[in-house]
Design brief:
The chain contains 13 helices and no strands. Helix 3 runs parallel beside helix 7 and helix 7 runs antiparallel to helix 11. The protein is mainly α. It folds into two domains: 38 residues; 226 residues, MetI-like (MetI-like fold).
Length: 302
């Protein structure tokens, strides 16, 4: 009997690895191998134009040293990305949670409101960004037109002072739907008998939210914040399409792409080093957030 179980387990294990082998192969070819190659290139002066014709010159840690000693534009991009990420994740999660609480209540037309709030998520990011640019780009844009009709002066939303705030607000709008949907699913998993028991004990809405709902929603909040941070650190298309490569709004990934395909003193080796800095920053923030919230997240099996 024991040999039969062992044999059956071995068969199931082979079937398991056979089924996931396509994913493993794709993951190795398109993730692990490129990452390893970029790590090697980060220690060289390889250029994209001569990558196949000229041997790569090993420069040790010169690329990384250059990032933190002379490349003030990339250091500025780190600050811009951190500011954008904080605003995008914090306010995006807060607004999505408020909407989820509202649409979890028994109100008329809540299905319609859920659909309307989620609809921006199905619009391609390039299309929605260009649409917003048409709405805010000029003094006679649609938004400024209504502002002037109300007796207010027009606003240059893409000025150096407001560009990063504008990009953050647009991305909060675009990401509200998926975040709200995840939090709404978490709210619907809160046991109703706990809320009924709290009502019998005389608990008000604030007590129920902070003592019951919010702790049981911690897993969903952890997921949306973690994935939101990872996505925010990789922001590129929205900023590039709206304001270009302005110093006030340049992000880390914009710098990586610009330097990788540059024909001047920069190189794909230098861009690879920047890419690994982006990866390290993302990993550090994710690990810190994971460690801080690890013991505070509610688990249904506990």
């Amino acid at each position: 009997m024991k040999k039969r179980r062992t044999r059956q387990a071995a068969i199931e294990a082979r079937q398991f690895y056979l089924y996931i082998s396509p994913w493993i192969i794709v993951f190795l070819l398109f993730t692990i191998v490129p990452m390893a190659f970029s790590f090697v290139m980060s220690f060289t002066s390889a250029k994209i134009a001569t990558l196949t014709t000229r041997p790569m010159q090993f420069v040790a840690f010169e690329n990384y040293k250059r990032i933190f000693t002379s490349d003030t534009r990339f250091l500025r991009s780190i600050g811009n990305t951190l500011l954008y990420s904080f605003g995008r994740v914090f306010f995006g999660t807060l607004f999505a949670l408020l909407l989820a609480l509202l649409l979890n209540a028994k109100i008329k037309g809540r299905k319609i409101f859920r659909t309307l709030i989620y609809s921006p998520a199905v619009i391609p990011i390039v299309g929605s960004t260009l649409l917003w640019k048409l709405m805010i780009f000029q003094d006679h844009s649609i938004i400024n037109f209504f502002l002037t009709k109300l007796g207010l002066s027009g606003v240059n939303f893409l000025s150096p002072q407001l560009a990063l705030l504008t990009v953050t607000a647009i991305n909060i709008w675009a990401g509200l739907g998926p975040t709200m949907l995840i939090l709404l699913a978490g709210l619907q998993d809160v046991p109703q008998d706990l809320l009924d028991a709290a009502d019998l004990d005389g608990a008000n809405a604030f007590v129920k939210f902070f003592r019951i709902i919010l702790p049981m929603l911690s897993q969903s909040l952890f997921f949306v914040v973690t994935t939101g941070l990872i996505g925010a650190f990789q922001v590129y298309a929205e900023v590039k399409l709206l304001v270009g490569d302005n110093r006030e709004t340049v992000t880390m990934t914009m710098q990586v792409v610009a330097n990788a395909f540059a024909l001047d003193e920069y190189s794909i080796g230098y861009a690879s080093a920047q890419g690994w800095i982006v990866f390290a920053i993302t990993l550090i923030f994710t690990a810190v957030f994971f460690g801080v919230t690890g013991r505070r997240r509610y688990r249904a099996d506990e």
